[in-house]
Amino acid sequence: MPTSKQSVAKERTGGSSGKKAAAVNAKKDKKIAEKIKPSDDELKNAVCEILKEVDFNTATFTDILKLLAKKFDVDLAPRKAGIKLMIQEELTKLADAEDDEEEEEEEEEEAAEGEEDGKRKAVKV
To answer: CA nearest 43: which of 6, 76, 4, 77?
Structure first.
């Protein structure tokens, strides 16, 4: 038979430990959901958007991480390493695309110069 102290304790805690366990489980589920949110695809898309807007001369990894955290309203510190890799991959893609564009422009200029030289030779004849 419970003593009066035990009865008072049960009244204060809500009468059973089942409710307390459910509350703890709900908090754990929320933390797990926060860890999953945002998905890698959502992060990658957000990284691409941010990289289009930032000044590469002044922006740091920490700046980008803060912008991502603000966008998703979640602490991304536990995922910092993965996000850093995403940013590096996207920067590499951007640099490769820029190099490809420069090569295409150079090839077009060389082709145009070759056509001009061909026209000059034809005129001299």
So the answer is: 76
